[in-house]
Amino acid sequence: MTDNRLDGNAAGGALREVFAVDLTAATGQCSNCAQSLALAESHLYTHAPGLVGRCPGCDAVLFRLVRGPGRAWLDMRGVTCLQFALPGAT
User: Fold this and answer.
1) Cα–Cα distance measured from residue 23 to residue 76, given in angstroms and rounded to the nearest whole number
2) What InterPro entries does the database record attribute to this sequence (predicted)?
């Protein structure tokens, strides 16, 4: 049996392409109530140590974004799947 596994660095190009898009236009599904929505439709709270996006249907946390000097942390565990158009795609 051969090992077809690569290390995570092999995903570098694909991840760079993915994170070059406007994610507010992306559609996702709330992991709590299964509502489908664009991230732009989330209720955004800014009075925290970052941004917190909540589901407009059930108020569950969809995502958290915290920025620090030279880095950022993105937690999207409240979204089961995210769909978005890639730049230059027709």
Assistant:
1) 12
2) DUF6510
Alpha-carbon separation of residue 68 from 18, 48, 64, 72 (angstroms) = 22, 13, 13, 6
Indicate the length of the chain as a whole number: 90
How far is the CA of 10 from the CAs of 2, 83, 89, in angstroms? Answer: 18, 22, 22
Q: What average pLDDT score do residues 17-26 get?
A: 86
Residues 5 and 22: their CA atoms lie apart, in Å, by 31
Nearest to 39 by CA among 4, 2, 74, 89: 74
Distance CA 7, CA 52 (A): 31
Instruction: Return all residues near 90 (Cβ < 8 A) that are at least 6 apart.
Output: none
